[in-house]
Design goal:
Elements lengths: L9 H7 L1 H13 L6
Helix pairs in contact: 1-2
Length: about 35
Amino acid sequence: MDRTFAELSAAEKDRFSHRGRALRKLAEALYIPPNS
């Protein structure tokens, strides 16, 4: 990485943060495919 954490966008920070990973896992767990 060629930038400091402070220089990253919120979306980029989410990729590295435990909260971002947890939110993605939660979204996957709550997802209900259409027509199921």
